[in-house]
Amino acid sequence: xxxxxxxxxxxxxxxxxxxxxxxxxxxxxxxxxxxxxxxxxxxxxxxxxxxxxxxxxxxxxxxxxxxxxxxxxxxxxxxxxxxxxxxxxxxxxxxxxxxxxxxxxxxxxxxxxxxxxxxxxxxxxxxxxxxxxxxxxx
Length: 138
Ligand SMILES: CC(C)(COP(=O)(O)OP(=O)(O)OC[C@H]1O[C@@H](n2cnc3c(N)ncnc32)[C@H](O)[C@@H]1OP(=O)(O)O)[C@@H](O)C(=O)NCCC(=O)NCCS
Known about the structure:
The protein is α+β, with helices and mostly antiparallel strands. It has helices at 13-23, 30-38, 82-97, 115-120, and strands at residues 4-8, 42-48, 51-60, 65-73, 105-107.
């Protein structure tokens, strides 16, 4: 692995889909991803030379609440500290753009086997449960 470089707000739909497919399969369409990326607060990517190897993004209102989405390190690069780098970049963004002297609620949803990763980075759980619905667009 070469030196990893960090880029802000450079994530493309093609790289998003490539990284999604590398861990989950069944990626959303490019049109959906382009709309989602355009409406994100902040996107961070990590690069090994020309290769995009990790991504994460943040959505939210910046004043009160930010939500972490789509944290993915390509399987070839997992376990090398890149996930920690992604989360630290997102938190630095909040600290740089939130209102001085206030607290911003940073949240995310994680599957059980990823909870220890987020706990290591300072997140903890509360009693709220995530409710969900897939809203179909005709
Ligand atoms: C979860 C994920 C982002 C972690 O990224 P990573 O680069 O492998 O993690 P890091 O190397 O930065 O790990 C940071 C710390 O968390 C620990 N950690 C990482 N994943 C862990 C896991 N699943 N369970 C327990 N600890 C974990 C590491 O051991 C490391 O601990 P240390 O600092 O004490 O050595 C990555 O595995 C991934 O992309 N998985 C597939 C997609 C996914 O599930 N994303 C999360 C959606 S909620």
